[in-house]
Amino acid sequence: MASFFATAVGVAAIAQDTTAQFRAGAAASNITPWLGVSIAGHMNDRKATHIHDELHARCLVLDDGATKIGFAIVDSCMIPREIVENAKQEILQFTGIAPDHIFISATHTHSAATAAPCFQSDPDPEYQRYLTAKIADGVRRAATNLAPAKIAWGAGSVPDEVFNRRWKMKEGSIGPNPFGKIDKVQMNPPRASENLIEPAGPTDPEVPFIFVKSVEDKPIALLANYSLHYVGNDAGYVSADYYGMFAERVKRLLGAEELEPPFVAMMSNGTSGNINNINFREVGEAKPPYAQMQFVADKVAKNVFDAAQHLEWHDRVTLDAVAQDLQLGVRKPTEQELAEAQEVVRKAEGREMKTLPEIYARESVLIAKYPDTVPVTIQAMRIGDLGIASIPCEVFVEIGLAIKEQSALKPAFTIELANGYNGYLPTAAHHELGGYETWRARSSYLETGAADKIQSTALDLLTQLQGRKN
After folding, report:
1. Which tens digits make up the pLDDT trace of 134-176?
2. Nearest to 101 by CA among 319, 268, 266, 417
3. Do 458 and 388 contact (CB within 8 A), yes or no?
């Protein structure tokens, strides 16, 4: 089936009427699963036995009088392309917003219902249909809430809650990977280990955000972005992780708990494929379940709230968006590797895969069935002078930093896990180092040169938007 992302430029923006009133609308659609569904984010399948906090698709629609754009930030580990495409078609049908003018992204909480198959967790088709409908409905309801508004954007910075999780280690301290090879870096090494040398990359502490108010100064929505994989430290129950706690904390800080229509805050994931919340230089501190999530959420929310006190507000901005599909290669096992993997899986038949070699053997068998190339959707949006790029991967932070630095629109930031799921996106240099994020699986399968192609395309799209700026 031909993708409706196929056009490189999407729907051309109509020249904006300078007298048109800027409008904004927001809504949150509850996507909490029923008990018993598979929970994503682990190599072994887990089932939902309790709901700690509700999951949502938090949605925002902006309208400059000529062009509408929409966001759906979804409490999910990852969302497959099929759900995104189907939701966007429903949104188009009922709102007229073009598919390439909508971002649908997963937050990457590791305690949400499985929506995309990964490792030994498989989605419930009924939940996939439910999720599709609820995402589309959230954007539709946001569109029905459109009202005269003003917009501002800014950025905070929280450097002490992001850490690069890939480490260079002393020689001989890294054991064989699932394929029997020795990597040059280790993900999540033992904390405070004497074998630690240095992190294998940087972090991005910035917390960019978009803030929308009514013309009477009533908060409508706030969309933030932070390059933090997730926090975790939960009890194994369904939870939106720190993303949902951030949304609730911002609402309280703004005194926006009882507004009509309801105020919606949301946290999107930046480029956090190699970033987490663990300081590996220090011994870990035992905390109750969910305590660290709340701590990070409160700190980041307060930082954004403080930064939001000093913004330049706009009652008219030009909106635009563009998308392009890339066809990228799939890293498949050789015939010999596939035969060896099939034998490992055969020996484990009838039970769950337990060891890493078994788990990755099964992944090799499944990846061998993939097509030789897959479509990968890159998208960019413009809000006034602000540029936003989106990538359907768990993106390494180096890529996000480069996009911010080189973007033709400034400021700029990147939303990852948007418009589908194509696994980790390490740079070519990180592929040389190896490590978990590069191990061939459905969680990491794009060609080793994918990062350069994706980064270049994202920058080209941002340049394109800047060039047709009104």
Report:
1. 999 999 999 999 999 999 999 999 999 999 999 999 999 999 9
2. 319
3. no
Q: What is the 3-state secondary structure (H, E, C) of the chain?
A: CCCCCCCCCCCCCCCCCCCCCCEEEEEEEECCCCCCCEECCCCCCEECCCECCCCEEEEEEEECCCCEEEEEEECCCCCCHHHHHHHHHHHHHHHCCCHHHEEEEECCCCCCECCCCECCECCCHHHHHHHHHHHHHHHHHHHHCCEEEEEEEEEEECHHHCEECEEEECCCCCCECCCCCECCEEECCCCCCCCEEEECCCCCCEEEEEEEEECCCCEEEEEEEECCCCCCCCCCCECCHHHHHHHHHHHHHCCCCCCCCCCEEEEEECCCCCEECCCCCCCCCCCCCCHHHHHHHHHHHHHHHHHCCCCCCECCCCEEEEEEEEEEEECCCCHHHHHHHHHHHHHCCCCCCCCHHHHHHHHHHHHCCCCCEEEEEEEEEEECCEEEEEECCEECHHHHHHHHHHCCCCCEEEEECECCCCCEECCHHHHHHCCHHHCCECCECECCCHHHHHHHHHHHHHHHHHHCCC
Mark 229-257 as b/e (b = at least 16 C-beta within 10 Å). Answer: bbbbbbeebbbbbbbbbbbbbbbebbebe
Taking only the tens place, the pLDDT of each residue in 370-382 is 999 999 999 999 9
Q: Which pLDDT band, with edges at 50, 70 and 90, does 7 fall under?
A: very low
pLDDT at 179: 96
The encoded tokens of residue 467 equal 């060039």
pTM, to two decimals: 0.94
Flag whether pLDDT at 19 surpasses 70: no
Mean pLDDT value of segment 91-115: 97
Q: Is pLDDT at 251 greater than 50 in this prediction?
A: yes
Q: What's the rounded mean pLDDT across residues 356-385?
A: 97
Which residue is it, tokens 């999540």? 188
Residue in 58, 33, 57 with CA at minimum distance from that of residue 46: 33
Give the range among 39-48, 180-189, 256-265 with minimum mean pLDDT: 39-48
pLDDT score of 209: 98
Calculate ∠ Cα 318-144-10, nearest 5°.
Answer: 45
User: Of how many residues is the chain composed?
Assistant: 470
